[in-house]
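Lecture 7 notes: from sequence to structure.
We start with the chain below.
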Amino acid sequence: MFTSQTSSFQDSIDVEERDDFDSEEISGYSQKIQLNCYYTIYLYQGTLTLVDSSLPLEAEPELRTYISRRLSKGALLGGMGNIATVELIPEQAVGCYCCLLEQERSPEQPDADGNGYVICFMGGSEKGLNSTSNPLTRHTFRLELDKYVQGLQSSLQTPELENLETEVRPYLSQWFEESVMHIYRVVQLVQNNISFLLHAALSHTHVDVINSDERTKTDVTFIKAASLQGLSQQDATTASLCKAISEDTQSDLIIDCSTSPPSLTNTSNRFCDDWIQAFLNAAERCNPFLLRQILENFKLKAIQDMNSLKRFVRQAEMSHYALFRCCQFLQGCGNGDVLLQNARAEHSDLPEACSIIGVLEEFLREREQA
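Predicted structure tokens for the same chain:
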């Protein structure tokens, strides 16, 4: 039983050995992230009018045809982007994110519904922008790109886009740096201490960055992508856990950037430590897509262990042997503190389960002191 769990865990960490990113793609990735990133913005009023683009001239007509086809099918929803592979240049397929930003309707323009701007970001491949190989998530960077596009909304209200060169173009040009590369910058910043951030994400610990610039503070919010919020089987679990932690005396994770590398004051565990090398290896390859896929595998493994603990706790209510197996599982997984923290929040209204969890917490404390 525990052998199979170890094998599954190792498979999760060894994502860079799979076919999702072949060796040729990885070896040249440090150049690709500089060269193959484009943006395009269209005005949409029944038809598409090009406003600005960094695409090669020969590629833009193919993109326009693709977007027109999506719009005619009603496949672009306002404010929610989608990602697909588009071959804009022969034998050069790229991942293409598209989003329709609708104009606000006014009494003077009652038929303006559906009009607005279409924003397109292109780079890497669909595997990078929208990884489908991981069952935990099908949209690797889509949420970040949606948020980034929304940040452009106020700048698009200017008549005739008089601020194109001063605001819109510089903003669009930074989409890859701001929405994708943040995970790479964070791993480069904290290095081996990435496990502290991973542990903070799983345990819903507040992170405070001091003595740093604003970009670093913003980058570290990537921790939200590492949390399990919204992924538990019961939506109330996260709310209960956050409330329990807020009432606890648990200290914040402090990242002090006055030194290089920064100093971190808090804790980690063996489960998070085991993922350090996978993150460092991907960072050496300058590959944010691979980093994000490793992060999703990390979350998937945590979810699997959490579900296993729930099953063991239910069984332990009726069997002392199941309680023994539960203790073995917690000792072997290396993530017992986080799993029990989540389990206590989720089972707070079940006295028998809370009693079992109390026994398991005492078991872990004794093991730590031994």
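Points to note: The CA atoms of residues 211 and 259 lie 9 Å apart. The two ends are 26 Å apart (CA to CA).
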